[in-house]
Amino acid sequence: MTTAADKNSGTAKAPSTTPSDAAGTANTDEPPSIEPSPLELKYRRRLRILPKAYRAVREDEMVATFLDSARDADPDDFDLKLKFGSPGWVEARSVVALALQLRWADPHAPERYQVRVGALRLATIACLAAFALFALINLPAQVAFELGWPPVRYDGPVGTPISTGPAPWYVYVLPWAFVLWIPTPLLALAKSRRLRLGAVVLVALALLTTILNAYPNFTSPLRLGTIAEVLLEAAILLGTVTIALSRAAPVVRWRGRWVIGISLGAVVLNAALVFAISANPEPPGADQPPEWWTYPFSIFTSDEIAMWCWAVAVAGAILWLRRWAVHTTTLLALTWLAIAAAAMRASYLVDYFPIFSTISPQSADALMVSYQVGMLIQLGLVVAVAAIAAAFTARRIHQLPAVAYGAASAADRANSQ
Amino acid sequence: MASYIVTRYIRRMTTSPVSEQAFFVLSALAVTPLHGYAILSEVADLSEGRLRLAVGTLYGILDRLASDGSIELDREEIVDSRLRRYYRLTNAGQNTLTRETARQAANARMATARLAAVPITPYMSSLCHALSHTRSPSLATARNSS
Fold first, then answer.
1. Is pLDDT larger for residue A387 or for residue A320?
2. Which residues from A are below 8 Å from B60, CB to CB?
3. What's the pLDDT score for residue B103?
4. 3-state secondary structure chain A
5. Do B56 and A96 touch (CB under 8 A)?
6. Which of A94-98, A122-126, A150-154 has the lowest mean pLDDT?
């Protein structure tokens, strides 16, 4: 067995090392003079997924370490390996893990990365809280529906016909899948990593049920709304995984409690208005036109995306009133949420536009028009919030220090923070 | 932001146990400053081939240990036109390694005492025989004495 001193001096497993090298002559300014081998080029290509600033500091060192270990693993055929070999999947996996760690899990990462990580956590927690709230709102209605208590459930102008007769078991189970969201925000905020992993499992199951729910639609033209919903839940799953794998639980700042409270209040108000409309005995599609006073309320459509749109709009209004005196992380999270809400609203508009055009104009024309106007108003509000927040976020991020790394200067970065 | 990082990350990291990989890296650097490849080889030797770190994994660990202040850059060299950076253990790193070694030793003593009270099985017998020929004879000694 070679000793550490042997390897350190480069004489044990690096026979080409010169005595001057072994003596420890530092000469960092000397440019590489050897033509890079194909193996080295392949490894450098693998390293491209690392942050550029990190590569500027670490790439040469990592390549040297990789080539030394490749030579150690197969000294007889090393020349052949240099020409025809490629980095193994273990090395590739470790580089991918390092790239993820640097960008999303390094507590001493450059400030730009920290802003992004913080925004992902905040947006994820906001999404989990919103989904949990939607589920809590929907729970009594679902229970009442199962008990055959009809006046409570209201599906809006575009209701789904209720089929009767025998059905597969999942038809009875999937409608209850939304309850999976209820405990997720509390689990994601837990100090125990095991509990945070529990949130990951629940979100993954919820995503799976969303896909299963959408399965009948795969036989017909796929709805844009379904795709947007699946993508959003997949993004939430990734955010929850990031939270679960990080060392510490996310912290909800008490200072922002009122912002969250007012946003959620808007959602609850919206839900209350929807239920108020549901008490109207003239649902859309009936022979008699609805009462005139229901038209303005139809802006508050019953779907969760509408609630979300209003929450984002209210959050944007609050931030505007505070003259953007908020952290860049919050702005970035709001930008992402607004983009997600706008994408969802737009996709639903596209999906439902043909349905609107087929509804009898004698019965519900005015209501339908106001319904579409309401959706467009929501879309416009959210797009405006997204655009303004994105502009401010870009300016703020541009003002942050550029991403930079040192060879062993992470401690310096930590101290400077 | 700074207070958040200190309270939620740094304080936890200083009080949480060191991972096995980081423990071996610290052990490898305990004797003398080493460069990346030498650390990989030393870790493989120290773990008797059980732990073979990939390059990406190694530099993730080195970054974390440097963030903790457990290691620092010793010097840089160019060997065969390739850059080598040598890392050394800091005083904080020595303290971390000492504390972790004591913790693991205490755990090993506790487990050894518990195993000594258990009726011996053929598997344990073979394990004790194997251990008696390695550098960890405490379990074998405990079994033989019982």
1. A387
2. 94, 97-98, 101
3. 92
4. CCCHHHHHHCCCCCCCCCHHHHCCCCCCCCCCCCCCCHHHHHHHHHHHHCCHHHHHHHHHHHHHHHHHHHHHHCCCCHHHHHHHCCCCHHHHHHHHHHHHHHHHHCCCCCHHHHHHHHHHHHHHHHHHHHHHHHHHHHHHHHHHHHCCCHHHCCCCCCCCCCCCCCCCHHHHHHHHHHHHHCCHHHHHCCCCHHHHHHHHHHHHHHHHHHHHHHHHHHHCCCCHHHHHHHHHHHHHHHHHHHHHHCCCCCCCCHHHHHHHHHHHHHHHHHHHHHHHHHCCCCCCCCCCCCCCCHHHHCCCCCCHHHHHHHHHHHHHHHHHHCCCCCCHHHHHHHHHHHHHHHHHHHHHHHHHHHHHHHCCHHHHHHHHHHHHHHHHHHHHHHHHHHHHHHHHHHHHHHHCCCCCCCCCCHHHHHHHC
5. yes
6. A150-154
What pLDDT, on a 0 to 100 scale, did the predictor assign at position A405? Answer: 74
Report yes or no: B27 at the A interface, CB cutoff 8 Å: no
Please name the member of A14, A62, A108 whose beta carbon is closest to the beta carbon of B59.
A62
User: At B26, is the pLDDT very low, low, confident or very high (cuts 50, 70, 90)?
Assistant: very high
Confirm or reject contact between B36 and chain A (CB < 8 A): yes
Pairwise CB contact (< 8 Å): A62 & B72: no
Q: Is B91 on the interface with A (CB under 8 A)?
A: no
Of A106-110, A319-323, A344-348, the range with the lowest mean pLDDT is A319-323
Residue A69 has its nearest CB partner, among B16, B37, B66, at B37
